[in-house]
Amino acid sequence: MSYPQTNSLLAKVNIRYLRPSFWLQCVFILLLALVLFGPIMNLLIWTVTESWYFPHALPSQWGFKYWQQVFNPYSDVSGSLFTSLLIAVLTVVVCLIVSIPAGYALSKRSMPFRIFWMLLFLIPQAFPNLTVYMNIARLFYDFGLNGTLLGVIIVHSVHGLMFSIWISVAAFSSTDPMLERASRNLGAGPFYTFFHIVLPQAAPGLIASSIFVFLESLDEFTGTFFVGSPNITTLPLLLYTASMEGNYQIASITALILLVPSILFMVIIHKFMKPEMLSKLGK
Amino acid sequence: MCWLLEVNMRQTTSPNLLKHRLWLIVPAALMVGIFFLYPLGFSLYSAITLDDGGFTLSHLNKAFDLYSKDILFTIIIVLVSVAILAVLSITIAALITLSPFRSLTKTLGFLYRLPLFIPFIVTAQMMRTFLAKNGLMNNAFVASGLLTPMDTVSFLGWSGIIITFVWKQLAFSTLLISGAMAALDESQIRAARNLGASRLSILFQIILPQITSTLGVAMVLSIVTMMSVLSVPLMIGTGSPTMMTADMAFRINSYGDYHVANALGLVSYCICAGLAWFYLRQNLKEKGAN
């Protein structure tokens, strides 16, 4: 770690790096990295494995055979990838339609029972939701919604509502009320004002909330397991079935497909949070 | 201009507009009401009533008869995971806040967030292969000479469930806790340092007492998450005992027995409520003591 430093602090820095706590922390970080990357590595290896039996430390045969199988246009994977994306996009649409007005209304402090409403939308995240899903499935069965796209979208939307409403409340709260008032005073109607003045200001927050809802929907398993099966197969359900059948290659490739948006978003978030992180570090 | 503003402000607080704004919330509130609160209420109702609507405790009794072992197992798993989670995330957050080595904290800050958006189902699949008898973990131990191939054991089971939960939830709870630590008044820490306090005593005497509420929130949310995840116990937990979530799914899929499944659900609510209550009481006690 003693890379060349040209400034006069060199001596001081070197003394600090010789302290045992530095090495202790290095070891801790190294262990953490191993623990975090180990499972991911294992997943990656399985995606390019053709056969891997017990005492072998690594696969005995490598190859992309299963990738061809997965990306065959007639495979289950492409079908459920399409279903997953369709459901996720429609869920985002539903969440936006419902949460933009609610978020706008709740961003005003004068809203009666504001705390109550905010807590109401927190509830779907604050209860163990498995029980709720199985009862929704039972209710949906009576209405013929079980195993339909609409049923799954409803379940995902309720689950994502907390993110979309809480984030859009924050987004609308950060808009400048004087601009809105000025627009009204200059004679613009409430709808014109909302769409041309308020909404553009809140757009970044709304996009963030949409990304959250999209990811939540893409990754949702439990609700789809009860409400969607057997007709709707999303990627998580396909992954589960493949894994339970011992078909680890297909399961791993599916998992990798699910990982891509997650990691992408992580990197974006990390980029956004960098300045905040630096200030966090005290300097 | 001034009177215009005044008129406008009066307008925004007039009851007519307030009603108008309440109307904006109605669709969202209806969605939560119909598709969450109603099934939630229904599950509670179904747990304690017979098919004809009479009150009964027989479902709860049956749930305890059949699954008391699993209920206990669930509580133990959740508590152990939360304990490990608390220790690890405090350690990481404290390192980030207090460590003098900037390059290390930067690495750490990136590392711990890695699992933040990795879905539970993907985590479960990774761990299913990683922790298995011929998984990468055991293979690494064998390759490094720590174990022979015959000594390896599969971690799929209770320990695997705990590892998976901790692995996945670590990012979330550390994010909350290090956020709380970053929000603390830095002059306190600097003052303590100047007065000669060690970093460890700063952590225990200055930082931790101020972030207990955030720690509590992070832990309660993690508990709720662990109690509702179905994929991990199904994919990692093998055989019996298993977690209650797996039992509920089994009860429904194999028997269509909603009463006992809902009774188990009721028990899981009670566990969550109990743990949340414990946290609240502890919090209040501390506030009272100060």
TrEMBL record, chain A:
InterPro entries: MetI-like, MetI-like_sf
Gene Ontology, cellular component aspect: plasma membrane
Domain of life of the organism encoding this protein: Bacteria
Gene3D superfamilies: MetI-like
GO biological process, one term: transmembrane transport
Residue ranges of coiled coil: none
Name by which UniProt lists this protein: ABC-type spermidine/putrescine transport system permease subunit II
Entry keyword annotation includes Transferase: no
Localization per record: Cell inner membrane; Cell membrane
Spans through the membrane: 21-46, 81-104, 116-136, 148-172, 193-215, 248-269
UniProt lineage: Bacteria, Pseudomonadati, Pseudomonadota, Gammaproteobacteria, Oceanospirillales
Record key words, sorted: Cell inner membrane, Cell membrane, Membrane, Transmembrane, Transmembrane helix, Transport
Residue stretches making up the ABC transmembrane type-1 domain: 81-269
Entry similarity comment: Belongs to the binding-protein-dependent transport system permease family.
Pfam families: BPD_transp_1
Topology relative to the membrane: Multi-pass membrane protein
From TrEMBL, chain B:
Major subcellular location class: membrane
SUPFAM superfamilies linked: MetI-like
Compartments where located: Cell membrane
Gene3D superfamilies cross-referenced by the UniProt entry: MetI-like
Entry keyword set: Cell membrane, Membrane, Transmembrane, Transmembrane helix, Transport
Gene Ontology biological process terms in this record: transmembrane transport
Membrane-spanning ranges: 21-48, 71-98, 110-131, 155-184, 215-238, 258-280
Domain ABC transmembrane type-1: 71-279
One GO CC term, this protein: plasma membrane
PROSITE patterns for this protein: ABC_TM1 (PS50928)
Domain of life: Bacteria
Annotated membrane topology: Multi-pass membrane protein
Family indicated by similarity: Belongs to the binding-protein-dependent transport system permease family. CysTW subfamily.
Name listed for the protein in its UniProt record: ABC-type spermidine/putrescine transport system permease subunit I
Species the sequence originates in: Marinomonas alcarazii
